[in-house]
Amino acid sequence: MVTTGILDLQNYLSRHGILISFSGRFSQTIIEELGEAVKKYLETEEHPKNDIFNVFSVFVEQTQNIKNYCESKRASDSYARIANSCIVTIGKCEDGNYISSGNIIEKVDAEKLVTLINELIPLDKIALKKLYKEKLKQELPPDSLGAGVGLIDMARKANKPLEYTINGIDEQFSFFTLNVIV
Asked: How much is the pLDDT for 139?
């Protein structure tokens, strides 16, 4: 029954400190609207401006990364499956706020993503800042959607190392989840 499911969902959200959650296809408009809702909510909770900026910034980076990944698969037969698998949640935890996002990815793309994140995890703030500046100076590949600094920037804003999981779905797909605590 739907009403029981909603109550169960509310209880789950409350137990996990989830303030905002969205599941479905990301568009630029949805990202902007949710971003504004995030800022307004955090402002009503009287968070310091720097904390609000960091949560907002990581939220935008995560959702843009997912949107860009989905767009890169537009010509694929699996585009609809990938594009409809997107989710982002923002919540409270002992160490601050967390932004968690996830989506289906093709297994062939997982290795590069894991390599990028694993290179960032052991770096301290000084090393992350240096890497960020180096990446900004590099020339962009012709098919690039950005400077490749999004994960680095999230790691710079995070209170703890980035956390991720990759769960296999079938022979072709996995579900990738990224958690950032700010």
From this structure: 78
Q: Is 78 helix (H, G, I), strand (E, B) or coil?
A: coil
Residue whose token pair is 């989506």 = 103
C-alpha span between 110 and 72 (Å, rounded): 14
Q: What is the pTM of this model?
A: 0.90
Which residue from 66, 38, 27, 64 is spatially nearest to 177, judged by alpha carbons? 66
What values do phi and psi take at 90, rounded to 5?
-130, 130
pLDDT band at 86 (very low <50, low <70, confident <90, very high): very high
Measure the CA–CA gap between 152 and 165, rounded to whole angstroms: 18
Q: State mean pLDDT over 7-31.
A: 93
- pLDDT of 125 > 60? The answer is yes
What angle, 0 to 180 degrees and rounded to 10, lies between the N-to-C axes of helices 150-157 and 107-120?
Answer: 40
User: Which tokens go with 35?
Assistant: 């971003």
CA angle 90, 107, 145 (to 5 degrees): 65
Which amino acid does the sequence have at 19? L
pLDDT tens digits along 138-164: 876 666 555 478 999 999 999 999 999
Q: Which helix or strand (DSSP H or E) is residue 100 part of?
A: strand 96-106
Going by C-alpha positions, the residue among 110, 27, 21 that lies closest to residue 67 is 27
